[in-house]
Each structure stands twice: as C-alpha cells, then as structure tokens.
C-alpha cells in the first residue's frame, strides 16, 4: 500500500485557499479583534453602537426562550410573561440606542473615506428592524395584536404588499417574526460590523487642512463649501 | 466642493495615520452586554409588559349584541367595511387606493377572497343543526331574488338603527314592525350561535384541520364596534397617534412617530392616505440609505459643527 506525501503548503489554485487568502487580507486578526484604536475615539456617543448590539443579543436570547416554549406560553405562566417583558424592553432599548447611534454617525458624516457601505448597512438594519418589530406585535395573540393587525393591514393593502404579506395571518407573521426577519437583521448587522472593522472608525474632520485652505483662498469659500 | 476635491478628501479620510490608544474590544462588549442585561431586568421587574385579553366574536355578541346584529346584516348585503373593501378581499371599490398612475392594490388583485354574506352569515347558519325553522329561513333568503334580498336587508338595517331597536345578551332582537322577510329568524339564530361561542369556531374552519389564519374572524370583528371601542379607551386610534402607542401606559412602537405624523396632516387624511404615506415613507427610507450620495443632506454635518463637540478631546489635543 502506498501513502500520499502531500506538501504542508497550501495549493494556491484551490478555491478554499483563495477565499481564505482574501478574507485574511480584508480582515486580518488584528483588525477583526483589535487591541488598539485611534486616539480620537473618545466620546460617549461611541457607546451606542455596542449598546445596540448588546440589546440585539438580549432580544434574540429572550426571543429564543419564548420560541422554545411556543407562542401561547407567555400568556398563562409567570415565567413566560417575565421573558416576554424582557423581550419587549430589550426591543425598546434596541431602537432607542440604534436611533442615537444613527444620529451620532450622521453628525460625524461617518460615510466619509470610503465608508458609504457602513452607513448603508446601518440604515438598512434600522429599516428591517421596523417590520421585524411589527410582526412581533401582531404575533402576540392578544388585543394589541388584533387592533394593530386590523389597522395596519390598510397601509399594506394600499401598497399592494397585503396580497402576499397578510398581517391577519398569524402563522405567516410568526414565521416572519421568529425566522425570516431576524435572520435578515442579524445578517446585515454582521456585515455592518465586519465593514466597521475593515474600514475603521471614521476620522474627525481635518480642521488644520480646512484652515490652510481658507488661508489660501483669502477667506473665500472653504473646501467643504460650508457657510461662514 | 468640486468632484476632484471630494475624491481627494475621501482618500485623506480613508485611513487614520495619527496616534492610537489601547483598546479591549472583548471587555467593552462584555461590559455593554452586562449593562444592557441589567437595565432590561430592571425594566422588566419594575414595569412588566401589557397583555390584554383578545376579543372574541362571543364577547362581542354578548357585550354589544345590537352592534353585532347590525354588522352581520351589512355583511349579508355586502355594505360592511369588508364587503365593500376591494382587493385583496373582493372586487369592490370602497377601500381601493391609488396615487397618480399607481394602482398597486388593484394590480396585485384578490389574494384572500372573502364573500362576507357566505363566509360570515350563510355558511355559519348552515352549520347549525336541529333548527328546521332557521334552516327554512336561510333557504327562503337564498332562494329570493337579489332585489328582494336587498329590500329585506335595507329595511332591517333601518329597523336596527331605530330608537326602539334592541338586542340582548340572552339572544333576543326587537325592532319596529316591518317587512324583513326571514332576516329576524336568521339574525336571532346567528346572534345566539355567536353568543354560545360557536361562530368563533365556524369562522376559523378551513380546508384543513390545523388553522393559523385569522383573516376572516378579524375582518368580521373589525367591521363592528368592539375593537374600536377598546382601542379608544387605550388611546390607540389613528387620531390619537395610536400607531406608536401601546395598551395601558406602556411605550409602543415609538419609532413609528414619523409614520403616524403624516396621518395627522389634513391633506393626507383622504381616501388615498395610506398609499400616500407609504410612498412618502418609502422615499424617505430610500433617502436615509442614500444620504452619503445626496448633495446638501450629506453636507449638513459640516455646516452645523456638532462634530466639534464629539471630537473635542481630539481637537484640544491637536490644537
């Protein structure tokens, strides 16, 4: 019997090696899990990104427990109601933190320096989270769900969406709420985080450069066209 | 700023070449998760969460019997909210919306067909056994010409709107004398069936054993007054900014404040309000995503220097 003696070096033509090589090039370990960051990252506003992410973790954890026991459990057990309350407050905090995070990033113009995709994935996360929450509200199986579904259906129907996204169909809404939309939110959030790690946190506006240009222009319009 | 200057600036901001400081991302994430978990637990212990019991057709027919009978009669002649709605339930026009050349509701067609007379009244009545007089009344109604059916339902609706009209929790209906044909027998049978809880089950019956689609019972109940009465008490109506409210005093979907704001503006309160608001919010959502590419909107952060507050430590250190 013969045994193959393959080389320990990887085959450059392999698809696997190519994907690994590109992934490591785009996100080397020190970028993915950094132990240093730019000195200008020193404001409370930076906390709201990780707080949004932490809220999402609590939402998924509490929602998973509710899903394990089924949609009716929380109505007739104290422990079920407790986890439902955790789920609700984590959602409220998630939106609160995310809105502050979005505003903070807007005022930093955080899309500068080739970071447009970072902004886009953040905005898309916020927009997908809205139907994710709505499908949760209409899956509650209580009066709230009855009222919200019968009212919100008119907007869905008017836009034609109601023909394939029926808020009054509990089974369909529950599927959207526990699988399809959370998967979309998590997917976009993962892309957002990887893009942040790849491009880094946006640097501050360069005031020195701006002053130089102002001087060169003799007090004319600044490089960014900002009003004086 | 010219295109060349903007591209040069993009390059300058691409990578930070200044000083760095130490940072422990795993520690920061762990502390944040712990803090949020503690805050969620605190809010849960202090405030819990709302859970108001759902209404049923039985509770509606028992607490508001006259409203139930009136609604059921409008379902029979198709003049109810559902009967006159249009797509995706039927081919009526009552709630069909459009904006300019856009008719998405009509384009997508009828995907959840509801025949209010058949689904909400006649089929449930046919499911009641052991009442030959009731079945004879249903047969008389079904065999009558549509003009006769219409004359009966119109007269009965007028009778039910009269001051002397009454219906009770024990299943009796009294209206002024009139030519109502078999309707009093039919509606008394339907009211008693609903008050016994039978109609809740009948409306859910589908082609299969398992059921998760509540479109029909919810549409029927929404045509009546019970859900709206409860919603008003809980400040959930549209003109109460109800879209972002929650039962009790809990915060609801506060993030919908801009969406519900448009409904408070008079020009957007007409027949096509929902579609217009959806179009406005769709455009604004697209705008939010594309801010980095929208001149003016992307420049506001430069013009209003809130960034000087955010990066004040950096500017102090580099001054």
Task: Provide structural commentary.
The complex is a heterodimer of chains A (228) and B (319). Chain A is built from nine helices and one strand; from the N terminus they run ααβααααααα. Chain A is mainly α and 228 residues long. The radius of gyration of chain A is 24 Å and the shape is globular. In chain A, 41% of the residues are buried. Chain B has a domain at 57-229. In chain B, strand 2 and strand 3 (173-174) form a beta hairpin. In chain B, helix 4 (65-77) packs across helix 6 (116-126), helix 7 (132-143) crosses helix 9 and helix 13 runs antiparallel to helix 14 (273-289). Chain B is elongated. Chain B is 54% helix and 2% strand. With 319 residues, chain B is mainly α. At the A-B interface, strand 1, helix 3, helix 5, helix 6 and helix 7 of A face helix 1, strand 1, helix 2, helix 5 and helix 11 of B.
Overall CATH architecture of the domain at 109-201 in chain A: Up-down Bundle
Structural class of chain A: mainly alpha
- Overall pLDDT confidence of chain A: 89
Principal-axes shape call of chain A? globular
Low-confidence stretches of chain A: 218-228
Overall strand count of chain B:
3
In whole angstroms, the N-to-C terminal distance of chain B is 25 Å
Query: Hey, which two chains have the biggest interface?
Result: A-B, 99 and 103 residues
Helix-strand sequence of chain A: HHEHHHHHHH
Low-pLDDT stretches of chain B: none
Q: Which descriptor suits the 3D outline of chain B?
A: elongated
Radius of gyration of chain A: 24 Å
Under CATH, the topology of the domain at 109-201 in chain A is which? Answer: Cytochrome Bc1 Complex, Chain C
**Helix content estimate of chain A:** 55-70%
Distance between the termini of chain A: 84 Å
- Oligomeric category: heterodimer
Could you describe the largest sheet of chain A, including whether it forms a barrel?
Answer: none
């Amino acid at each position: 019997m013969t045994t193959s003696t393959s080389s320990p070096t990887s085959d450059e033509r392999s698809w696997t090696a190519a994907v690994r090589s590109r992934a490591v090039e785009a996100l080397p370990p020190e970028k993915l899990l950094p132990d240093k960051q730019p000195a200008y990252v020193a404001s409370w506003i930076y906390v709201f990104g990780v707080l949004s992410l932490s809220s999402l973790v609590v939402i998924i954890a509490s929602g998973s427990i509710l899903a394990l026991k089924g949609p009716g459990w929380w109505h007739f057990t104290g422990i079920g109601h407790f986890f439902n309350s955790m789920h609700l407050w984590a959602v409220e905090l998630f939106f609160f933190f995310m809105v502050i995070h979005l505003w903070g990033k807007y005022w930093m113009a955080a899309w500068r320096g080739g970071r447009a995709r970072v902004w886009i994935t953040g905005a898309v996360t916020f927009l997908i989270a809205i139907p994710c929450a709505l499908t949760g509200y209409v899956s509650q199986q209580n009066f709230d769900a009855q009222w919200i579904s019968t009212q919100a259906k008119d907007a869905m129907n008017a836009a034609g969406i109601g023909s394939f996204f029926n808020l009054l169909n509990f089974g369909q809404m529950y599927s959207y709420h526990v699988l399809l939309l959370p998967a979309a939110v998590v997917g976009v959030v993962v892309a957002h985080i990887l893009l942040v790690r790849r491009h880094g946190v946006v640097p501050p506006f360069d005031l020195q450069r701006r002053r130089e240009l102002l001087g060169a222009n003799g007090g004319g319009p600044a490089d960014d066209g900002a009003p004086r | 700023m010219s295109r060349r200057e903007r591209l040069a600036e993009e390059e300058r901001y691409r990578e930070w070449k200044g000083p760095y400081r130490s940072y422990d991302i795993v520690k920061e994430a762990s502390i944040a998760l712990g803090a949020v978990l503690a805050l969620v637990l605190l809010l849960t212990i202090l405030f819990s969460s709302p859970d108001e019991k759902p209404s049923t057709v039985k509770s509606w027919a028992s607490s508001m019997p006259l409203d139930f009978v009136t609604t059921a009669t409008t379902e029979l002649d198709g003049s109810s909210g559902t009967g006159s709605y249009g797509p995706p339930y039927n081919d009526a026009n009552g709630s069909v919306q459009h904006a300019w050349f856009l008719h998405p509701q009509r384009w997508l067609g009828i995907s959840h067909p509801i025949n209010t007379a058949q689904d909400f009244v006649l089929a449930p009545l046919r499911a009641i056994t052991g009442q030959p007089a009731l079945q004879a009344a249903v047969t008389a109604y079904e065999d009558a010409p549509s003009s006769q059916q219409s004359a009966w339902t119109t007269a009965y609706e007028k009778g039910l709107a009269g001051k002397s009209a009454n219906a009770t929790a024990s299943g009796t209906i009294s209206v002024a004398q009139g030519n109502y044909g078999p309707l009093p027998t039919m509606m008394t049978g339907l009211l008693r069936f609903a008050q016994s809880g039978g109609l809740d089950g009948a409306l859910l019956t589908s082609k299969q054993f398992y059921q998760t689609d509540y479109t029909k019972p919810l549409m029927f109940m929404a045509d009546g007054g019970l859900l709206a009465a409860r919603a008003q008490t809980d400040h959930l109506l549209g003109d109460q900014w109800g879209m972002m409210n929650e039962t009790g005093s809990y915060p609801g979907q506060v993030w919908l404040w801009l969406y519900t704001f448009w409904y408070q503006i008079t020009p957007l309160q007409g027949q096509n309000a929902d579609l217009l608001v959806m179009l406005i919010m769709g455009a604004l959502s697209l705008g939010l995503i594309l801010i980095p590419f929208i001149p003016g909107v992307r420049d506001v952060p430069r013009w209003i220097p809130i960034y000087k507050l955010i990066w004040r430590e950096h500017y102090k250190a580099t001054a």
